[in-house]
Specification:
Length: 334
Amino acid sequence: MVAINEIKVANAKLTASTVPRVSVFVGGTSGIGKATIKRLASTGFPVKIYVVGRKSTRPAMEPFLDELRTANPKADLVWAEGEIALLSEVKRICRDIEAAESSVDLLFLSAGYAPLGGTRNDTPEGLETTHALQYYGRILFTLHLLPLLRASSNPRVMSILAGCFLSGSIDNDDINLDKPGAFGGFASQARIGTLNTVGFDQLAADKDNAGITFIHSWPGAVNTGNMARYWKPSTFSFFPWTELMKPLFFFMGVSHEDSAEKHLYQATTGTFGGDGPKVDGVKAANTAGSQGRGLYLLDDKCEVSYNAKTLDNLRAKSQAAVWAKTTEILKPYL
C-alpha cells in the first residue's frame, strides 16, 4: 500500500519537466476526472488540458474552468465538445487535437456509465452504451492519439475502471453481451473491465508502443454519481444503488481530493516508467513482468494487483478474439 501522505509528498516534487504538459481528459466533467483536472492545474505549471465533454455539461463546466484559469494563469484549459458515446464523434475530436498538437503526454479516460438496473441502451451507431463509452471509445481515443503519445518524452494512457479485477473467461462468440439474457448491469461492468485489461495489454505488447505507459486502475469507492445519473427503475433496482452504498462511501469511501492525488501520482510517478517522482521503497512490475513502460493493473491503493494466471488464460483463449472484434467495430472510425 502506498500511503496517501507519501503520495502527496511525491506529487509535491513534480516539476515543469515531469508534469504532463499536454493532457486529454475524457470524462473530466464530473467525478474523478474533474477532480484530477483540478489537482493537475493546481500544480501551478504551464499545462495544457483538453476537457472533452457533452454540450449539455458546458454551462456547468465553464465557471469551473474559469476558476482554474484564475488560480493558475499558466494553465491553458481547452473545452473539446462532443458526444463521446458516438465513435464518429471520438474520431472528430481526435482529429481536432491532432491538428493542434505535436505531442500528448497524458490521455486520461474516465467517462462512466453504470446501468446497474440492467436496462440496455444502445447508441445510434448500434453499440450498447457501456461498451461504447468504457471500452470501444477508450481504445479508439488511444489508437487515434498514439502518434502524438509516441512523440512525447513521457507518454501515459490511463483507463480508470477496474484494473485489479478480471473475469475468468470471455464468451468469444458474444464479446459484447448481445445474446438474449447475457446483458445485465453487473455483467456489463465485469465484462467491460476485463475487455479494458485485455485490450490495453494488446496495445502495450506492440513494440511500436514500447515507450508508452498504460495504466488500468480501480479507483475504489469514489462517489462519482454515475449510479444515480444513469439509473432507471427495474425489477432489480427500485432506487439508485448509490443510496444503498452511502454507508460504504461514508466508512470506506475515497474523497474526490484523495482520489485526485492518487490519480495525479499514477499519471506522473516514475514507478510506472519515466522520470517522475517516486515513493521510496515502492517498486512495481507491469503485465510483462518487468519494470519501466508497459501495462500496469492497479488497485485503489496504487499497487499492482491482479491474478497473473487469469490474465495468462485470457491471453491464450480470448485476446485474439477480443482484438479481432475491437478492430472490426473500430475500423470505420479510424
